[in-house]
Design a protein that fits this description.
The complex is a heterodimer. By secondary structure, chain A is mainly α. Chain A is 73% helix and 2% strand. The chains are: A mainly alpha, B alpha+beta.
Chain lengths: 333, 426
């Protein structure tokens, strides 16, 4: 088990390096000087050079570059990519070109928001999706089954941004209620739990509805599969109550694909966070990423994509590990 | 003897066979009403996309009532002159008047503005006006008219979906949005899936170093959340003078401006290519997996033993076996590509204004703030169209899955099983 985790973590390293290199190169392909994009009012050659020096853009981009003389490659002790990577390993993610603030500070404020949003989404999705899927599977071909499946296709097809807009519209027009983060800033959970939950409930619901639709369909098919097994027939013939058979014997065996899909959906949810956070004015990681990409804030983009990729890969590792916990037959050598 | 028996049987089989096939299709359709609904939605998408703006040898077949990027203007009539006026008159008598102080209007070609309303009698309203720069005399019965833009008009008979804050017809924009979605979806999927299929075959067939390099690349690209990956690609591709844009503009016959009625055609095409790249990454992974098992077949060994080259084996023996997979992937990825376009346009870096795109229309700041004041139509309808298209693809997909899964056949309701891994839910 420990070896397995170590091996997976080691596998993470080349992927992370690749992600870092790719974002780095992608933003160097774009012509146009980051210094020119981000210098304020006066763009003289001097201020530009000062800016380039400040951002480290005057260094060679990669640690290795070609040269005309033998041995045809040149190694640089200081390069943009090399220094950035060294800084990251030391825990310094660089400085935002637009805000002139440290990316680590900014992330310290923003990561909790995204984490809370995603946690709430997953919880809501589980609460909405799994029971409905179970209900639909134990009463197949009934109006309940039909209704829950049609609803799930419906919510699966509503794009999250459209659903979000409609929800904000409904709140304002019919209940004259806007989520508290509009107008008033973000309120942390330990300052005022009630306001905080109001801020997060609807954005999380928007993401969770599509997610729960996926979970509902998956739970239904997994349960249908499991309910056909002999041990379920045995459980019935022992005279166990329906609740015990369904929740203890069947659902426990149907849960593995559900966990897998939650893991696979983490990437989609992180992407969804980009949309929902900008729609609902939550200053989380997603909104930060979007703004950074649009403003070409190099160091922010590099660091945040790295973080996104890392959390995605780590989430999948966690999913793999939960298998062993859920199903004792699975052992990782 | 045998022939005599066989002949009548054959004749008998032929006709009812066809009728039975039709009957069976109808029966299937009746059993899967949701699938039929999906089919209708998708047909509507294709119909609107193709006929949005189309003229064929001078015969107009467009179904958009107005040009989607034109400002809709309407002639308003404020009344009729009750008495003729000279060039020097600054008092007009108007019947059926709706003018107020400050109203501007034209009589014939002359522009006139109202200073104040003097009196109202049974013959008409007398108004004091400021005449235009070259006053003329107008006869009795001349109309007071003004050609005005009509922003935020409610849905009505002439504009069933209303007009937006730029006075553009929302129905036309929604219909034309289908063309953008369809174009981007088809271009992205066709380029992406074919490129992915080629890369996947090469990667799976050669294995070893090539495979490792390709698959690590795919791992890296798939480690990005899809939206973030797309945003990154778009900013790299779509930049003012990026290599891709310059190449497309200079070395291909793609027009930079209007084409197929689409303004900014090149930008739209670049968005499609960026989505295609993401599609290619996914396709490579799937096709490579299929090729790994196909290349173990004996006929591949046989071909190699006969001295066939690698290229020939890939073309003649492996590729035909993945065609079905590629077609399925394409049909599954089409709604994903359409939704991806809407998403990045919504986030503001997809299809540029004024090109009508469902996602971009949803993201328009002014439309959205106006929506909260009750002008819901410019935002509601494009989003509704987008949802309907995705819903259609999902429902058709479900129906096909039910049909292809023999365990669920005949149960009427079929299974909603599998979940498509949230592929279409972005």
């Amino acid at each position: 088990m420990r070896d397995y985790i170590i091996r997976r973590l080691l596998l993470l390293v080349p992927i992370m390096l690749g992600v870092a290199l790719l974002t780095f190169l992608a933003y160097r392909i774009i012509p146009g000087d980051a210094a020119i994009l981000h210098c304020q009012l006066e763009c003289t050659e001097e201020t530009l050079n000062a800016l380039r020096h400040e951002f480290g853009l005057d260094k060679p981009p990669l640690p290795i570059s070609g040269s005309h003389d033998a041995p045809f490659v040149e190694f640089h002790k200081h390069s943009q990519f090399g220094d950035w990577l060294a800084d990251v390993l030391r825990g310094d993610l660089g400085t935002s070109l637009t805000y002139r603030t440290a990316v680590t500070d900014e992330l310290g404020r923003r990561v909790p928001i995204t984490v809370e949003l995603l946690l709430m989404t997953v919880i809501l999705a589980l609460v909405l999706g799994v029971p409905l899927g179970v209900l639909s599977a134990i009463r197949p071909a009934t109006p309940i089954d039909w209704l829950s499946r049609v609803t799930s296709v419906f919510f699966l097809s509503l794009p999250s941004f459209y659903l979000g807009i409609l929800m904000i519209f409904a709140g304002v027009v019919w209940f004259s209620w806007t989520p508290p983060q509009f107008g008033r800033g973000y309120v942390a959970f330990y300052d005022d739990p009630w306001v905080n939950l109001q801020q997060f409930f609807f954005p999380a619901l928007v993401l969770a509805l599509a997610e729960s639709a996926v979970l509902m369909r998956l739970t239904r098919s997994a349960m249908l599969e499991v309910l056909r097994n002999d041990y379920i027939r045995t459980a019935w013939s022992k005279g166990l109550r329906e609740r015990t058979v369904v929740w203890r014997h069947a659902l426990k065996n149907a849960i593995i694909p559900i966990v897998t899909v939650i893991g696979l959906q983490i990437g989609g949810l992180l992407g969804g966070a980009v949309i929902v956070e900008s729609l609902y004015n939550l200053n989380g990681m997603g909104k930060y990423t979007l703004e950074a990409i649009i403003r070409r804030d190099l160091f922010v983009v590099q660091s945040v994509t790295l973080l996104f990729a890392a959390s995605y890969v780590l989430a999948n590792l966690c999913v793999d590990l939960t298998y062993a916990w859920l199903d004792p037959r699975i052992r990782y050598a | 003897m045998a022939r005599e028996i066989a002949l009548p049987l054959e004749l008998e089989e032929e006709r009812p066979g066809q009728r039975r096939r039709l009957g069976k299709m109808l029966q299937t359709a009746r059993r899967h009403p949701l699938g039929v609904f999906g089919l209708i939605c998708i047909s509507l998408l294709f119909f609107c996309g193709i006929f949005a703006q189309l003229s064929f040898f001078g015969i107009g077949l467009s179904i958009t009532p107005y040009n989607p990027i034109d400002v809709i203007r309407e002639v308003r009539t404020f009344g009729v002159l009750a008495e003729p006026v000279d060039a020097s008159d600054d008092k007009l008598v108007v019947s059926d008047s709706t003018v107020e102080a400050g109203t501007n209007f034209n009589i014939d070609q002359e522009r006139i503005s109202v200073i104040t309303v003097l009196s109202t009698t049974s013959e008409g309203t007398t108004i004091l006006v400021r005449r235009g720069s070259s006053p003329e005399s107008h006869g009795q019965g001349a109309a007071l008219q003004l050609d005005t833009a009509i922003p935020n008009a409610k849905p009505s008979r002439s504009h069933p979906f209303g007009t937006d804050h730029n006075s553009r017809d929302v129905l036309s924009r929604t219909i034309f949005g289908a063309r953008i979605s369809l174009l981007i979806g088809l271009v992205a999927v066709s380029t992406g899936v074919s490129a992915g299929a080629v890369l996947g075959v090469i990667s799976g067939y050669f294995g070893k170093v090539i495979d490792s390099i390709f698959m690590r690349g795919v791992d890296i690209l798939l480690a990005f959340p899809a939206v973030v990956l797309l945003l990154a690609i778009i900013t790299v591709f779509g930049d003012e003078d990026s290599t891709v844009r310059r190449f497309l503009a200079n070395s291909t016959p793609l027009p930079e401006r209007d084409f197929l009625g689409i303004p900014n055609f090149l930008d739209v095409f670049i968005v499609a290519l960026a989505i295609g790249l993401a599609v290619a990454v996914f396709t490579t992974r799937v096709v490579r997996g299929a090729v790994l098992s196909i290349k173990e077949n004996v006929y591949v060994d046989a071909a190699r033993a006969m001295g066939a080259s690698d290229a020939r084996i890939m073309m003649r023996h492996i590729f035909p076996n993945i065609v079905a997979l590629v077609v399925i992937l394409g049909s599954v990825l089409l709604p994903v590509a359409i939704l991806a376009e809407a998403t990045i346009s919504f986030l503001g870096i997809g299809v540029p204004i004024p090109t009508p795109s469902w996602g971009a229309d949803l993201s328009d700041e002014k439309s959205r703030s106006l929506m909260l004041e009750g002008y819901w139509w410019p935002v509601f309808f494009p989003g509704f169209a987008l949802s309907l298209v995705v819903l259609g693809f999902n429902m058709l997909g479900d129906a096909f899955r039910d049909l292809s899964d023999p365990r669920l056949r005949g149960s009427g309701l079929g299974g909603g099983g599998g979940g498509r891994g949230g592929g279409v839910a972005m």
